[in-house]
Design brief:
The chain has helices spanning 3-27, 50-61, 105-118, 128-131, 144-148, 170-175, 194-208, 212-221, 235-238, 267-270, 285-294; strands spanning 44-45, 48-49, 65-72, 75-86, 91-92, 272-275, 278-281. The chain has 296 residues and is α+β, with helices and mostly antiparallel strands. The chain has a domain at 104-221: DD-peptidase/beta-lactamase superfamily (Beta-lactamase, 3-Layer(aba) Sandwich), CATH 3.40.710.10.
């Protein structure tokens, strides 16, 4: 090896040594302190254990129950159920309790829209009226993208005579607000409206030739193997049944009921309603009504 190569090799080794030293030094600085608790089942936040924080939040907000998982990839150091899964039956919440995700359903709807955009069946900048003829004239230039952004100005049907105990079709929900004025000119402001995503669900059905539920099941839930993700209407037949005993002293914490009447998937999405001095779960019908906005 000539002198030049020896010098280069020495420089490379020196550089590697310095780099390794810098990495080790950085590991002891504040830059990596967020890694300290990775994988720690007794994770603390601001000096409080997670269980303590959850208990305080539940008490402050009068929450009957919840399930929680802490993900610190690739670790899941903590997962647990707190409180009740159903207030009526005093069933304890667990890591297997089926909760409704409510408006988070919009994420699945948005993905469905983008899948159809990729297929050339939807265009984000095309007015929704192109796909759904018969909409009010004031809605005619509202685009698919504006519906996704909640910048359409279309009122939320839940503020105009909507009854959560009554069954509606998506078209009937739209009818509740079709004669109402826009809250603002489309594209000039943002205000969350469930009607926006009802219209997106209808557009998905129109251009795909499938029901919204079938489309999401086929192109999102099934390919990803999401066995514990389903629409409320599917819970009686698809939900995994895990109820070894009704005795609270024997593994009661791990069981949940699959029947909709027993565990209402809309409860965590829209909460409970006051019934005298007690809490009563919202009607399960309300879940299906929320469709592409909150049907999961």
């Amino acid at each position: 090896m000539n002198l030049k190569l020896k010098v280069i090799s020495a420089c490379i080794l020196l550089s590697m040594s310095v780099s390794a030293t810098q990495v080790l030094a950085a590991a002891n600085t504040n830059e990596t302190t967020y890694l300290v608790n990775r994988g720690d089942p007794q994770l603390k936040v601001n000096g409080k254990y997670i269980d303590q924080i959850i208990a305080e939040v539940m008490a402050k907000n009068n929450l009957p129950g919840l399930s929680m998982a802490i993900v610190q990839a690739p670790y899941i150091p903590r997962s647990a159920g707190y409180g009740l899964a159903t207030a009526a039956n005093d069933e304890l919440a667990s890591t297997k309790t089926m909760w409704g995700i409510g408006p988070i359903t919009q994420a699945f709807t948005a993905v469905a829209v983008m899948q159809l955009v990729e297929q050339g069946k939807l265009d984000l900048n095309t007015p929704v009226s192109v796909y759904l003829p018969g909409l009010p004239e004031s809605w005619h230039n509202i685009t698919i993208l504006e519906l996704m952004q909640h910048s359409s100005g279309i009122p939320d049907f839940r503020s105009f005579g909507y009854k959560q105990e009554q069954k509606y079709t998506p078209a009937q929900l739209v009818d509740l607000v079709k004669d109402k004025p826009l809250e603002f000119k489309n594209g000039t402001d943002i205000n969350s409206s469930a009607t926006d995503f009802i219209l997106l669900g209808m557009a998905i059905e129109k251009v795909s030739g499938m029901s919204y539920v079938d489309f999401v099941n086929k192109y999102q839930i099934a390919p990803l193997g999401l066995q514990s993700t389903m629409f409320a209407k599917d819970m009686p037949t698809k939900a995994f049944l895990d109820r070894p005993t009704p005795d609270k002293q024997h593994n009661q914490h791990s069981k949940f009921k699959s029947e909709i009447d027993w565990i209402n998937p809309v409860e965590p999405a829209t909460g409970y309603v006051a019934a005298g001095d007690k809490l009563a779960p919202v009607s399960a019908i309300a879940t299906d009504n929320l469709y592409a906005y909150g049907g999961l």
